[in-house]
Design a protein that fits this description.
Shape: globular
Protein name: DUF1995 family protein
Helix content: 25-40%
Domain DUF1995: 5-209
Organism: Nostoc paludosum FACHB-159
Strand content: 15-25%
Pfam family, one: DUF1995
InterPro entries: Chloroplast_ADK, DUF1995
Amino acid sequence: MSELPNSLEDAIAQSQTAVQAALADGCNRLQVEFLFPELKLMPVAEQFVPLFAEYDSRLKIFFADAGAAALARRDWADAPFQISDIGTGRAASLQTKIQPEDEIFLFISPTSVEVPQLEKLCEAIGDRPLLFLNPRLEDSGTVGIGYAARKIRDRFINTIESAYYLRPIDDQTALYRRYPGQWEIWVENGGEYQLIAELPTKPSGDELDLILMKGQSQTTTNAVPGRKPNVFKSLQRFLKALSS
């Protein structure tokens, strides 16, 4: 049975286990998403990166721009891994960005603006494993809508496996996925969270609304009580304390 986290450290540990499982299954393009509006990502990245400690200098971490990469080099001055920027907006040589000795790649919060360069980088990376941490790759204002957006989604975005997803929808509802499990919808009921639905794919906004409106499971099992009461409220308080 799934178990929701009750702290940010707990969520990061769960995500690390999920990433290890996905990599072991041969999934080479992964993403991890902690979708809290007040979350500061660098402390999360600092706790997440030790997952790749064995790779040492063969780990390469990408930030969206040169400024963010420079700040990371300052903050992680003694780190063995390499830090670079995606290189959008200038003539960025893929030969200098992706080298044969690089074995695994971590992209910190890339956005839809970087998608064209990301596609080129991922093509150069090939079958080597890569992970997107809190990516924001879909923005209709940048990527577009309709046919063009579908092509980008089919060609690139849909090739990324969600290893871990955690999003409080409100104080009483959460959407959760931990590889290799299904997508789960949890709702607070009587002081504890209950698993009310499991789905094989990520639900759309309309699907989510319909499930919540019905308030019933999409599976053949009854709602499963969560082990921790008010877990997402306490996690939100934790994140607010971390952000202050």
